Amino acid sequence: FIISGTTGTTRVLVRTVAPSLISAGVTDAMPDPTLELRDGNGTLIAANDNWREGPELEIQESKLAPTNDLESAIITTLPSGPYTAVIHEKNGQSGVGLFEVYNLQNP
User: Fold this and answer.
1) CA angle 74, 76, 22 (to 5 degrees)
2) How far apart are CA 26 and CA 4, in angstroms?
3) In what order do the strands lie in the sheet with 44-48?
4) pTM here?
5) For range 18-42, the mean pLDDT
6) What is the DSSP string of 26-74?
7) Greatest Cα-to-Cα distance within the chain, rounded to the nearest angstrom
């Protein structure tokens, strides 16, 4: 994903959705995804396994907390530029996962 602009920063929430996809009919969803956030050079910025192990209160206050405790979320402030969200299954299994990025700042 890309945060556009030439100056300033943007507060974002990046999250994985995988176990929750089962209720939507996805039968091969990852059971326990982990999330990595990397910059345009591939450098690790942040990582999370279970979202409640991060800044839980701030994630809850965003009203965008994952619905399954095994899903991951990162909340951070980023400058303009390209970023990559990487989802891994914690136990090495394959499966379907989804990542979402939310701009938490008012326009």
Assistant:
1) 20
2) 33
3) 2-3, 81-89, 33-39, 44-48
4) 0.90
5) 94
6) -TTB-SSEEEEEEETT--EEEEESSGGGS-HHHHHHTT---SSTTS-EE
7) 43
